[in-house]
Design brief:
It contains 15 helices and 12 strands. The strands form 3 sheets. An 8-stranded mixed sheet has the order 7-8-6-9-5-10-11-12, with helices on both faces. A two-stranded antiparallel ribbon has the order 1-2. Helices cover 31% and strands 13% of the residues. Among the domains are: 38 residues, no CATH class; 245 residues, Rossmann fold. With 428 residues, the chain is α/β, with parallel strands linked by helices. α4 packs across α15, α5 packs across α15 and α9 packs parallel to α10. It is elongated, with a radius of gyration of 52 Å.
């Protein structure tokens, strides 16, 4: 409620004087204003932080007005965040080159099952430096330049060295999933089948890191074991009779002879009457034992295709090497060997076969070897020519490092061609 009072006490009277002792009636006016009951309702969140109403004493205020306080605001650098749609992309840290750092080895993943000892490989345990010095080059001029520049200039190996290393890589191809069997055969004797078997086995064993064995499966008194220095009198018959007791490679190794190239040779029976009894079952026993300890088995088959162990040999063979002499009749018999294989269900072996053309036989100089090679090119995968070598003509010991370089190169090429045709992984 608002009240307004008006009086006439201050109004002047006629004559310019204002009497002070004259009583003047007083008039008053009253105004009544109806206000709303509640103008503003304070929200609960504001009421929780509001300041309680306190009555102010008017006498407390100074006539000069309330005291003032000056606050100086200092501007500081404030980081401006980008809008949400433009969030900065933080690049990921680069992956370490290996599991070892300066702070220590990262914790490896632990297998859920106990690991065998074969899992502790050099590749897993040995720390390989990030930068590895390029190996010293091989070759006279290349090595001379390398040494003259204090190992600063390395132009790499010579052309011949690169070819040799490429051939070694082909021969040393690793296999997975079991043993690979190679059968060396022909329908005619006297063409150098045992010599080719020995050279093939030596070329493989000299390069490969795993084990290679050559088995003499000739029932007609084979001579494969006589091409190396023998260290035992044991034969395939001993393996058959003692198969149940041969549990380790050390025990089996007492029955074979080892060459300096690390080729193991298992001899055939020396008694022709006993050798004739070496049949399909006996060969399977020997082959099963060889599968336990060797990656490659070279089988020197007997003369002909119908002897007792030939069926088991061909059933296990992954590849065959057909030995051909450098004469008309020898080349025809080698071609008939392929025909016999095709007609007896071994077409796959024929397509994957390699023909070893032995030019050390009689009459080679009078025959067009190019025509023989052209004939077999249409039937098999490849042909390798083995040159004449006096060290092989005697039919006795073969020392791989003493044969002529051309002969050794031909044997290595034959080994590479054979390994190229062997499956790296077993599909079945």
């Amino acid at each position: 409620m608002a009240t307004r009072r008006s009086t006439k006490e201050d109004e002047p009277v006629e004559g310019g004087s204002t009497p002070t002792d004259i009583a003047v009636p007083t008039e008053s006016m009253t105004f009544t204003v109806a206000l709303p009951v509640q103008v503003h309702e304070t929200p609960e969140d504001e009421a929780a932080v509001s300041i309680d109403d306190v009555a102010i004493n008017p006498d407390y205020l100074s006539t000069a007005g309330p005291a003032t306080t000056t606050i100086q605001l200092v501007a500081e650098d404030v980081a401006i965040m980008p809008p949400p749609e433009e969030e900065p992309v933080i690049p990921a840290l680069p992956e370490p080159d290996d599991v070892y750092t300066r702070r220590g080895r990262q914790r490896p993943e632990v297998a859920s099952t106990p690991e065998p000892a074969t899992m502790l490989t050099p590749e897993r345990l040995i720390h390989t430096p990030k930068r590895k010095r390029k190996p010293a080059p091989e070759g006279f001029l290349q090595r001379l330049l390398y040494d003259a520049t204090f190992r600063l200039v390395n132009v790499g190996d010579s052309y011949r060295v690169r070819e040799r290393k490429a051939l070694d890589a082909r021969i040393g191809k690793p296999f997975e999933g079991g043993t690979r069997f190679v059968a060396v055969l022909t329908r005619k004797g006297g063409v150098g089948k045992t010599t080719i078997s020995t050279l093939l086995g030596m070329a493989m064993a000299d390069v490969r890191e795993d084990r290679v064995i050559a088995i003499d499966a000739n029932p007609d008194r084979g001579t494969l074991a006589e091409r190396i220095i023998k260290s035992t009198r044991a034969t395939v018959r001993d393996v058959v009779t003692r198969a149940a007791t041969l549990g380790t490679f050390t025990e089996f190794q007492t029955l074979v002879s080892r060459d300096v190239t690390r080729l193991d040779v298992l001899a055939s029976d020396t008694d022709p009457t006993v050798a004739e009894a070496f049949d399909e079952d006996d060969y399977n026993v020997v082959a099963d034992m060889a599968e336990r300890f060797y990656s490659v088995v070279v089988t020197d088959c007997g003369t002909g295709m119908l002897h007792s162990a030939m069926k088991a040999t061909l059933q296990r063979a992954d590849s065959v090497v057909v030995v051909c002499g450098g004469s008309v009749d020898e080349s025809r018999l080698a071609s008939e060997t392929l025909t016999w294989l095709e007609s007896n269900g071994y077409e796959g072996l024929v397509k994957n076969a390699v023909v070893a053309l032995n030019t050390a036989t009689h009459g080679t100089n009078l025959v067009k070897l190019e025509e023989i090679e052209a004939h077999f090119q249409s039937r098999v995968r490849d042909i390798v020519r083995i040159p004449y070598d006096p060290a092989l003509a005697t039919g006795s010991l073969i020392r791989f490092d003493e044969v002529r370089p051309l002969t050794r190169a031909a044997a290595r090429e034959l080994a590479a061609q054979v390994v190229d045709g062997l499956p790296q992984e077993r599909t079945a």
